[in-house]
Amino acid sequence: MNRLAVELPGLSLKNPIMPASGCFGFGREYARFYDLSVLGAIMIKATTKEPRFGNPTPRVAETPGGMLNAIGLQNPGLDKVLTEELPWLEQFDVPIIANIAGSTMEEYVEVAAAISKAPNVHALELNISCPNVKKGGITFGTVPEVAAELTRLVKEVSAVPVYVKLSPNVTDIVAMAKAIEQAGADGLTMINTLVGMRIDVKTGRPILANGTGGLSGPAVKPIAIRMIYEVSQAVSIPIIGMGGVQTAEDVLEFFYAGASAVAVGTANFVDPFVCPTIINELPALLDELGIDQISECTGRSWKICAHAVHCRP
Amino acid sequence: MNRLAVELPGLSLKNPIMPASGCFGFGREYARFYDLSVLGAIMIKATTKEPRFGNPTPRVAETPGGMLNAIGLQNPGLDKVLTEELPWLEQFDVPIIANIAGSTMEEYVEVAAAISKAPNVHALELNISCPNVKKGGITFGTVPEVAAELTRLVKEVSAVPVYVKLSPNVTDIVAMAKAIEQAGADGLTMINTLVGMRIDVKTGRPILANGTGGLSGPAVKPIAIRMIYEVSQAVSIPIIGMGGVQTAEDVLEFFYAGASAVAVGTANFVDPFVCPTIINELPALLDELGIDQISECTGRSWKICAHAVHCRP
Amino acid sequence: MIGREQMTVASQRLIAERTYELTLAGRLVQEMKQPGQFVHVKVAASADPLLRRPLSLCQIDHEQGQCTIIYRQEGKGTALLAQKQPGDTVDVLGPLGHGFPLEAAPAGGRALLVGGGIGVPPLYELAKQLANRGVNVVSVLGFQTKAAVFYEEKFAAFGETYIATDDGSHGAAGRVTDVIEARALEFDVLYACGPKPMLKALDERFRGRPVYLSLEERMGCGVGACFACVCHVPGSETAYKKVCSDGPVFRAGEVVL
Amino acid sequence: MIGREQMTVASQRLIAERTYELTLAGRLVQEMKQPGQFVHVKVAASADPLLRRPLSLCQIDHEQGQCTIIYRQEGKGTALLAQKQPGDTVDVLGPLGHGFPLEAAPAGGRALLVGGGIGVPPLYELAKQLANRGVNVVSVLGFQTKAAVFYEEKFAAFGETYIATDDGSHGAAGRVTDVIEARALEFDVLYACGPKPMLKALDERFRGRPVYLSLEERMGCGVGACFACVCHVPGSETAYKKVCSDGPVFRAGEVVL
Ligand SMILES: Cc1cc2nc3c(=O)[nH]c(=O)nc-3n(C[C@H](O)[C@H](O)[C@H](O)COP(=O)(O)OP(=O)(O)OC[C@H]3O[C@@H](n4cnc5c(N)ncnc54)[C@H](O)[C@@H]3O)c2cc1C
Ligand SMILES: Cc1cc2nc3c(=O)[nH]c(=O)nc-3n(C[C@H](O)[C@H](O)[C@H](O)COP(=O)(O)OP(=O)(O)OC[C@H]3O[C@@H](n4cnc5c(N)ncnc54)[C@H](O)[C@@H]3O)c2cc1C
Ligand SMILES: Cc1cc2nc3c(=O)[nH]c(=O)nc-3n(C[C@H](O)[C@H](O)[C@H](O)COP(=O)(O)O)c2cc1C
Ligand SMILES: Cc1cc2nc3c(=O)[nH]c(=O)nc-3n(C[C@H](O)[C@H](O)[C@H](O)COP(=O)(O)O)c2cc1C
Ligand code: FES
Ligand code: FES
């Protein structure tokens, strides 16, 4: 049997590695580097009802071990995604997870209903936590009741399982996760970016035109691991983990924390070949660690503790 | 006039640089490297009523651009701090900011009342946000009403101004800051560490014996800058900023964001001479940037925006 | 084809104030064709600095299998790059983007190359290729001060070359546009790379003429995937071009500066 | 005096599987006295890896102004260290901690040195200094396998030396404690450095005898300020010692292993 295979609601993945939303466009650019069919899945860029230009530039800034972005959900809009991007992606043997965003609940519902019917869309990912969209975005992701309500409404109209993407910018991530699980979500994806900022010492102004942006990359990995560790013990729906993944070891760390699959974001910018490289390296790492199926690894860090005396997590 | 001088409640600082609590012990170790009198102030290690051993080891783990710690408030207890550590520190011409912690409100109040009367203690720093003490710690720092109540009680008994140290592990840092300001705090210090975790891929277990720990170092700087930027615009009490400071440029970035002084934590471990180095380098940097007094820089990133058309923070 | 390679440092030298000329060897050179294209360089394997740095190709030598870039030491990344010694490797992704259209310059015609500061390097390969095609090349290169000037004689080898410095310490005092005006320089096509105010001045002055501008923008991916480097298209709220993959060279008027 | 210096790499070579011998030159060497002390090394100026790495002094040569450390490539930091070439610099803080007490070994007496794996290096300088003082040195060095063995002859120059390997591929098969037992090795004082299970076994077997153990713990500051590296003192809930500044060498029984 394929030892990298993972079964998730709506997703039979040949391996658990997928590019994270917003870091891979709609796949066209990376298709020049490798055959996208090698990927476990693809999380496409957030789609909104209308086309959006997004924020003014500069939109990215580097930070120690990470980067800030304030793209502002630039995307070609629902129609173009349905008529151009998704059909183009059909040439690859890879399930699509459609990341959707909106300024109102109605917008989410409308986009979800339409996009979930596309033949290669196997799941939705609700981006309720984009820190770079002022209207709505941040509130959906930080108030459990609002997130739950949105989840319920989208579940009603979606033709495929719904994953909700959690914001790390909250006091109690477990409360958010539980509310969303109860509202019927099929899975969680986490984490989105942390709100951060950099100021240019020469000009005295924020580097990003938007002021603040979302922090991603290796710098945030320990926060992602902690949150997945906590949430995975509190809910019974699966988690697709992300936040700073760069290597096959990182993937294992996310599985051990409680993830059932892993998305790679910022690392694609550092190395466009990072996803296939990780996929190729995983079997040898599993061998080294004496692991048969990668799916066995989910939650191992807390599962072994119930039996081990020396563990004090 | 001394261009690095800064006036804060209870603190007339010859320069705005001070080691952060927990990263400098009670000064004895670094006194072997340089004369502590060069420092603006010293934030001593958190003091509790009774001596504490803290958490089992390993207590630290490295992360990309940062580190996790779960020391667990190890300290020799109030009596020893009063009779041994503070008197020893009197030989230096440097004001002490006493960081205090506790498991109950009563413990905070008792320690505050006693330690605030020590002759060289010029201010208190309430550590309401240590993520590594399970009992109490984390709750004080994440519920505005509780933090406000604690602030009020400590203010009543303290002989010196009270600064409250904010936890970044909250949804709404501005709400916390406002509640604490209204409760009578004289200043804020921010940020404490972010709760994080690392798992050892070889053992499958968390690297820290405590499971989770507090993330500090350059990796968290963009989060600190963003929070100080937001809070400094919402309150009128001063902020001592910290989180990833390593260089004189970093100090300026914190001032521009809204800080009135800056503490250096993790960087002391990387370079024991970092505080005097920054102090020495600041004047040349001010020259380069055409700044007369460093105190002018506080909040410049948002102050200039009111007048500038192109700024979109 | 865009590729990624650990290229080998053949040489590196300081050619002006904080300005380095770095020559790299590797198979990737065979993919490099167009002047104005850039490479995306990861200066260290560690997570700090994390992102690649976009740097223009300054010389492409297919025979030797070498390419040259010229960069100014600005921040963390370029400081690390400046430490590379011959024999060290550099992680290069490229060639990226669309460069200057050579075919816009008629053989026997006149091309005006206008460079500002660290925007000068890509014009060198352009001058070479234009000259090879029988185009008359005139170069106007602006720098802040004498110490920053580089490649003056190298450009002069391909045609008339004028230098302007802000402080007048070398060549004409003032800006490149002052030189163009003072000398009444004519052209069939103008190619420019440099700071945005310079590009804007050229755009305004020569509106409607065949002018090609190379833009700079902070980048994430460098390959068109992250939407970090977009600019507006005139007359539309949502239409955009990406500097990294649609540019960095655009015809004046194609995008909003 | 503890100091910080950019020391210069005099040489670096692979001496066993993933094991490097690195010789550094600088003034700081004159401060290095006691075997068992360590240096705290920052392998790159960048924020990744951020922390210093504690590495024991293996040889101190005041005349040449050089010191040697031997380390095994484990993670990110040691991998970067392994790339250093002669002439490169390394940011060193040290010497740190309290080493092995030489005076515990009477001249003419017998010192048993027990090392495990990457715990072997500090025993080399110890062997040298003990031999200089007229102490009879017997060394028992344990490794996983033959490919990991290093410095066998160098130790042999100072006295009887026994090697044990876990897989029996070199020397005796088994552990250092097996060798001590099999050979009925006697001592006036025992000094050891190696993995905790080895130290525990020695502690239990020789309870009450003069045994000195060098401990390992994850460190932050390395100088006693951060409380990362504490261990308990027997019989107290709150008493502690810091491995970095009170140790790394403790008399057996002084701290809880
Ligand atoms: C298409 C293109 C071609 C370029 N060609 C050259 C060249 O040939 N020679 C040269 O010296 N410079 C060139 N630049 C500018 C060069 O990319 C920056 O000077 C360099 O990235 C600064 O990196 P740093 O590590 O020194 O600075 P840091 O301040 O450490 O950089 C931090 C981050 O900001 C980005 N950044 C900073 N300044 C710029 C800038 N001006 N443009 C884009 N990103 C920036 C960096 O890439 C990095 O992501 C070019 C830029 C672009 C977009
Ligand atoms: C007092 C002392 C002396 C030592 N002397 C030597 C020596 O002479 N030769 C040698 O090969 N090793 C020695 N070690 C162990 C050495 O410090 C680690 O192997 C090294 O820090 C690993 O770093 P890394 O970058 O390869 O690993 P990484 O996994 O990248 O390290 C991550 C973090 O964990 C810490 N860490 C990892 N393993 C250890 C460990 N075993 N002990 C302490 N911290 C660790 C690192 O210092 C770093 O902070 C000594 C340790 C101590 C405490
Ligand atoms: C440039 C950029 C754009 C992003 N756009 C989106 C987006 O459109 N929708 C979304 O849900 N997340 C978006 N994200 C967040 C990523 O999907 C991911 O959650 C986050 O970056 C953490 O993973 P990483 O550290 O691997 O990048 C974006 C991140 C980056 C860096
Ligand atoms: C090892 C360690 C111990 C700490 N102990 C304390 C403490 O006792 N009290 C406290 O308020 N903060 C403590 N902190 C938090 C720091 O004071 C500081 O807020 C934080 O580390 C961010 O700054 P930095 O990135 O410069 O380290 C500790 C941090 C570290 C790394
Ligand atoms: S840099 Fe990513 S799209 Fe241009
Ligand atoms: S490492 Fe900081 S006290 Fe020992």
UniProtKB/TrEMBL annotation, chains A, B:
Top-level EC class: oxidoreductase
UniProt keyword list: Cytoplasm, Flavoprotein, FMN, NAD, Oxidoreductase, Pyrimidine biosynthesis
Compartments, as annotated in UniProt: Cytoplasm
Active site positions: C130 (nucleophile)
Pathways per UniProt: Pyrimidine metabolism; UMP biosynthesis via de novo pathway; orotate from (S)-dihydroorotate (NAD(+) route): step 1/1
Keyword Oxidoreductase: yes
Family note: Belongs to the dihydroorotate dehydrogenase family. Type 1 subfamily.
Described function: Catalyzes the conversion of dihydroorotate to orotate with NAD(+) as electron acceptor.
Quaternary context: Heterotetramer of 2 PyrK and 2 PyrD type B subunits.
Protein name per its UniProtKB record: Dihydroorotate dehydrogenase
Protein source organism: Geobacillus subterraneus
Gene: pyrD
TrEMBL record, chains C, D:
InterPro entries for this protein: Cbr1-like_FAD-bd_dom, Cyt_c3_hydrogenase_gsu, Dihydroorotate_DH_ele_sf, Dihydroorotate_DH_Fe-S-bd, Dihydroorotate_DHASE_ETsu, FAD-bd_FR_type, FNR_nucleotide-bd, OxRdtase_FAD/NAD-bd
GO BP terms, alphabetized: 'de novo' UMP biosynthetic process
Stretch forming the signal peptide: none
Protein name: Dihydroorotate dehydrogenase B (NAD(+)), electron transfer subunit
Domain (FAD-binding FR-type) ranges: 2-102
Record's subunit section: Heterotetramer of 2 PyrK and 2 PyrD type B subunits.
Residues involved in [2Fe-2S] cluster binding: C221, C226, C229, C244
Keywords: 2Fe-2S, Electron transport, FAD, Flavoprotein, Iron, Iron-sulfur, Metal-binding, Pyrimidine biosynthesis, Transport
PANTHER family in the record: DIHYDROOROTATE DEHYDROGENASE B (NAD(+)), ELECTRON TRANSFER SUBUNIT, DIHYDROOROTATE DEHYDROGENASE B (NAD(+)), ELECTRON TRANSFER SUBUNIT-RELATED
Recorded metabolic or biological pathway in which this protein acts: Pyrimidine metabolism; UMP biosynthesis via de novo pathway; orotate from (S)-dihydroorotate (NAD(+) route): step 1/1
Cofactor: [2Fe-2S] cluster; FAD
HAMAP family in alphabetical order: DHODB_Fe_S_bind
Gene3D superfamilies named in the record: Dihydroorotate dehydrogenase, electron transfer subunit (2.10.240.10), Nucleotide-binding domain of ferredoxin-NADP reductase (FNR) module (3.40.50.80), Translation factors (2.40.30.10)
Species in which this protein is naturally found: Geobacillus subterraneus
One GO molecular-function entry: 2 iron, 2 sulfur cluster binding
